[in-house]
Design goal:
Elements (H helix, E strand, L loop, with lengths): L1 E3 L5 H14 L8 H9 L3 E8 L2 E13 L2 E11 L8 H15 L4 E3 L7 H9 L16
Parallel strand pairs: 4-5
Antiparallel strand pairs: 1-2, 2-3, 3-4
């Protein structure tokens, strides 16, 4: 059900073309070249969830080294509307946590909008803990 993307082909590009709009209305789906950067990059792992042979979900795990250790971050978790409630999100997260642990990450962080109630319940159920912090963002024009 869960695998790491290793090749960028028409199926992967089409899957992201279908999934990303379900995640964000303000971000366009990645191009084949952008997906290749992610798939081939040493600091990112793109996980895919298949249901009935079709890509129905994705999660990107990013790694970065800082003076206090190796950290990782889960980004852009998306499960197709047609596959929600089937454990796809949990399977994607568990796969990402296993890879982060195997690579020696100190921890794994993620953010989730409060309106994503089911996702927030999932994250807490599998062991993520809310942090007492302020999140700031600087956006370039």
């Amino acid at each position: 059900m869960i695998s790491e993307a290793v090749v960028v082909d028409d199926e992967l590009v089409a899957a992201f073309g279908r999934l990303i709009p379900q995640l964000s209305s303000s971000s366009p789906p990645p191009t084949a070249a952008q997906l290749a950067e992610l798939v081939d990059g040493p600091d990112t792992v793109v996980f895919l969830a298949r249901v009935g042979g079709e890509i129905m979900g994705s999660l990107t795990l990013a790694f970065y080294r800082i003076p206090t250790g190796l950290k990782s971050w889960i980004e852009d978790v998306v499960v197709d509307d047609a596959a929600r409630g089937r454990g796809v999100g949990e399977a994607l997260n568990e796969a990402a946590l296993a890879v982060a642990r195997s690579r020696g990450a100190k921890d794994v962080s993620l953010t989730s909008r409060p309106s994503r109630e089911a996702a927030n319940r999932l994250y807490q159920r599998i062991g993520f803990e809310p942090r007492e912090t302020n999140l700031y963002r600087f956006t370039f024009d």
